[in-house]
Amino acid sequence: LAVLEQLEExxxxxSNGKAFFAGDFIGYLDFAVGCHLLWLKAQCxxxxxxxxxxxxxxxxxxxxxxxxxxxxxxxxxxxxxxxx
Length: 84
Description:
By secondary structure, this protein is mostly helical.
């Protein structure tokens, strides 16, 4: 999707090579974008549609892993199967 390519470019520009959109620490924009990851993962599991992958969006693919591993995210994001 074109919008994911634009998001990849925005991440590259604004993260300055850091882990999250605003830099070294998770911030508001990470949560705003990250809230959609659960649904993208559910679509992948249900229909086999892969939206974020290392081939097309390598920075976002790596960011999704870092985002999911944060304590703040682990506390509030349910397992993908809960929304399926």
